């Protein structure tokens, strides 16, 4: 049986280390170790066959010290409260590292969305929204897409919230369809951010973009876009994978052909991608393939202490949230690997969510170039701030990012003071 990892404990271990490096007293960051609020809901749904199924859902708010809570909603059959708590805390750190005026939150429903019809999924989403309604709002807590959710689901959330309010409230959720207040560039934003960050780290390490060999785990919204944009920048994408397994080609894969194959919308997975010269590999093989940059862009706890010693890439850019366990992180550090942590590497999504929310509350619409330019500026600035901390404290990029983030959260708390 595979080992069970508690991602919240992982988060606490990293937090304690960052607090120590910042020289904080326990009283200054004690509250950051806890989530502010946790709501658990039971969501009854009438299924198309007339039966009733009850799904478990959550919304967790980790911190509102720097602004409204912000973070996605995950639909996945294996979610549990510790995972949602960790994801909420990572959102607080992520928003702080890129310095956007939000705290962190996260929601989830324990469901495999692929097993539901569209009608069932809509009913589930509407009922879930109604049940977390007291917690969310454009000034309070703003959901967004995450694993297993998409723009269409965000549109249903916006509609349900608006029906309850009696008027349209686009700013209650981000990642919406463009037609109902979504932002241009939001769908690609996380993958685009991963590309910018990969470019920056390669530049710092004196490595070229052209010809650099990249392996990407996960061909969803994040991994798929990152692979495509890195390919466009001249990287050689040697391996990609999805839930069904991976494909490898030493001389580089044709990403456009893979994406159009997967995008055929008839449940095609990489296992079915059969092209001469392309070898099928497992997900474990993908992580340990011969390459320069590894982009884990699937779920948590993929790089474990079992996999870590086998990793060949010299740079790891975390497109997913929490893909590396604490133990694996130590092994990779010992082996001299450079890891750009999730809270920086995948922050592009929430940055453009912030732009979407800003457009919504001002009733403005930016063009895509403006969005991408503003995203690039924030990603580069944040990368440099983290890099400087890494250098100054002679530590890892993960610690550098946590130091930048924790310092901002603790300062906000201090300025606001304790109530009562
Ligand atoms: N789910 C994404 C993340 O983990 C986006 C969150 C957001 O846009 O609020 O960063």
Task: Report on the architecture of this protein.
Among the domains are: 37-171, 3-Layer(aba) Sandwich (Rossmann fold); 189-340, Rossmann fold (3-Layer(aba) Sandwich), CATH 3.40.50. It is built from 14 helices and 13 strands. It has helices at 7-22, 26-29, 81-97, 118-132, 151-165, 186-204, 221-232, 255-262, 283-287, 326-334, 342-345, 348-362, 368-392, 397-416; strands at residues 37-46, 52-63, 69-70, 73-75, 104-109, 141-142, 213-217, 236-242, 245-248, 279-281, 293-296, 315-317, 338-340. Strand 12, helix 10 (326-334) and strand 13 (338-340) form a beta-alpha-beta unit. The chain is globular. The chain starts with 6 loop residues before the first helix and ends with a helix. The structure holds glutamic acid.
Give the helix/strand class.
Answer: alpha/beta
> Quick one: how many beta strands?
13
Main β-sheet description: 7 strands, mixed
Name the assembly state. Answer: single chain
- Major sheet: order of its strands? 10-9-8-7-11-12-13
Cα distance, first to last residue? 48 Å
Residues in β-strands, percent: 15-25%
Structural shape: globular
User: How many DSSP helices?
Assistant: 14
Bin the helical content.
40-55%
Encode the helix/strand succession as letters: HHEEEEHEHEHHEHEEHEHEEHEHHHH
Provide the descriptors you would attach to this structure in a database record.
single chain; 420 residues; alpha/beta; Rossmann fold; seven-stranded mixed beta sheet; four-stranded mixed beta sheet; 14 helices; globular; binds glutamic acid
